[in-house]
Structure formats: structure tokens, C-alpha cells
Amino acid sequence: MRHNTALNWARGLILCGVIGLGLCHEGAANRSSAKPKPKPPSVAAAKVSAPSNRKPSPAAKPAPKPQGAKPGARPPATATPSSAASLKPVSYGVSHGDWLTLNLLPSEAIEAVGVAPYPANAASRAQARVQARRAAILDAQRQLVEQLYGVHIVLNSRLNERGLQEDVYASAQGMVQGAQVVSERDWGDSYEVTLRWNPPAQPSSAPPAPTPELLEPPRFVKPLPTQPQGYTGVIIDARGLGLQPSMSPRIRDAYGNILWGNLEIDPQTVIEYGLASWARTQADLNHSALRSRLGENPLRIKAIGVQGIARNEVILSQSDAEQLLLENARSGFLERLAVVFLY
């Protein structure tokens, strides 16, 4: 009796389970017909969700997030190149290693003031002043170089147990040409010098002006009367110079060269006619013998001196000596002895 009761109880449990399972399947079918069926997972999703024993390649790793970024924040947008970015920067210098040498110098004058103290170990105050002045000039030149070519700054920072320490090094390099001292002052214990640098003159783009032709300098000579036949004789005016009449007078130039007097003439001619004639006054020149000797157009020359033991040698200026020789070459009056001395 007890065995049958237990068997019936077990059968009832199995029957209830079968009935409940059928009801469950029927409700699931009803729900699936009312709602759209979900899509099957894609292959990529399956690969991501499915565990894999292979290690991902480096290219498959996601980009690391920037430090300090909040979770879920969008990545910063990448700046697009603009038209301003395509412009090339204009450089005013040429880089030589780590140094920048300027090609364009200022167009205006600049000044720098240099100051230097008197050295304590100078032998005297005068020597200390000279050394301080020289140091002040160098200080002003250094400032001009810094203004013209710039300063090269090097900064070194280091952190130690004492804290942050920084070392700054400054250097300048260049050439200053044409700087002039415009003012200087002695302060007693120091010296001050002000230098001014003027920019060099820019070459002109205009073509160079043509070189003018070289002209001979004008020669100033005494105007001579126009005579087709030339001068017929010469009158040497030596009045007031101490000239003495002689049988063998001579004419010299300012350098002592003999212009006339060394003549080879027959002695009888010299005795009768003489090498020259002599006159005391202007009226004596109107004598018939002198007029016939000089001719109608005599040349008049003023002597500048007399020399010789016998005081019978007259001296002419260099211009008068040249004129005498020039006119004698045309008409030959010296060889004809057409000479008269006023004494």
C-alpha cells in the first residue's frame, strides 16, 4: 500500500513537469511572434566576445588615452591646415651653426654708453685714468655689438638638495666699424664714454655718372701783339739794378742758364758795332743809331736782377726768358745783335 502511494506521487510530479514545460514553450512562442527577432551576432562581435588564446598584434592595440583625460571624453579634434600655415616665415639672417648673423643693419645711428671704474692696482692716477677710459670704450663697443647682432643666451637649470639652480651664459659676436666717440667724462673714480655708430652708405642703384674728360689747365702767358714778321729786336730794361756797360754782356734766366752772350763774332765787328747798345733814358731810344739797330717793332723785357763781377749779366724771369727764346726762334734778332740795355 505504501509502495503504490509513493509511486503514484512520483508519477504526478513527472506529469506536472511535462505540462509546465509545454506551457513554457507555448508562452515563449507567443512572445517571439509578438516581438521582432533579434539579429544574430556578427562575426566581428563574435570574435571580440569570444576568448582567444592568440595575443593581439601591436597594430590592433587601441591608442592610449592622454593623461588626465576623463573617462568617456571625446578625443581632441585634429587642427586642419589653414592658409596661414602654408605661408613661409621670412628670415632676416643666415644661420651658421648655433649663431645667427644679421644681414640687415639698422638704417639709423645708434649710441652706447660705456662705464668703467678706475683700477685699484694702477701705478698712478694718470695710468688708472687711461686704463679706465680704454675699458669704457670696450664696454660701449660691446653694447653696440649686442644691439647690432643680438645676444646668444644659454640657460642651464639643475635641481639638487638646495633647490632649483640656474646658470645663464650670454655671448655676442660681431664687428663694429666706424664708431666714433661723441662724448666722454671723468667722474673721479670711473670713466664714461659715449660711442655713436652711423650706418654705412647704401650703394645707389642709379648708373654711375660718366667720367668727365680731363682738360689741360689753362696757361696764362703775356699777350703778344700780332706782328706777321715778328719782333725785330729786344730792349732789356735793367734800370735801378746796378747794371754796368760792358763789351761782353750776357742774359741769363732765373736758373742761371745763359740765354745770350756766348757768341763767336769777328773781333773787328765787336769793336766797330758792339754786341749790344746802351741807353740811359727812354728818350735815348729815339736815337737814329738805336732805332736802326732795334727796328720798328722791338720787344721790351724787364730784368729782375744783375750778377757777375763786372755787373754785366742781367737776369730775366722764367716766363720772360721763355718768351725771349720763342720770339728769337721766329725772327733771329739775337743773332743779328739787335739788343739794347737800359741801365
Mean pLDDT: 74
* Radius of gyration, in angstroms, nearest whole number: 62 Å
Shape: elongated
Helicity, in percent?
A: 25-40%
Biggest sheet: strands side by side, in what order? Answer: 11-15-8-12
Percentage of residues in strands: 15-25%
Total strand segments: 15
Structural class, from helix and strand content?
alpha/beta
Assembly status: single chain
- Count of individual helical segments: 6
Distance between the termini: 205 Å
Low-confidence stretches: 41-53, 77-103, 221-226
**What characterizes the major β-sheet?**
4 strands, parallel
Order of helices and strands: HHEEEHEEEEEEEHEHEEEHE
In a nutshell, what does this entry contain?
This protein is α/β, with parallel strands linked by helices and 343 residues long. 27% of the residues lie in helices and 23% in strands. Strand 1 and strand 2 form a beta hairpin.
Walkthrough of the structure:
The chain has 343 residues and is α/β, with parallel strands linked by helices. Among the domains are: 105-197, no CATH class; 233-342, no CATH class. It is built from six helices and 15 strands. The strands form five sheets. The chain has a four-stranded parallel β-sheet. Strands 10-9-14-13 form a four-stranded mixed β-sheet, with no helix packed on it. Strands 3-7-6 form a three-stranded antiparallel β-sheet. A hairpin with a 5-residue loop joins strand 9 and strand 10 (258-260). It starts with a helix and ends with a strand. 13% of the residues are buried. Mean pLDDT is 74; it is low at 41-53, 77-103 and 221-226.
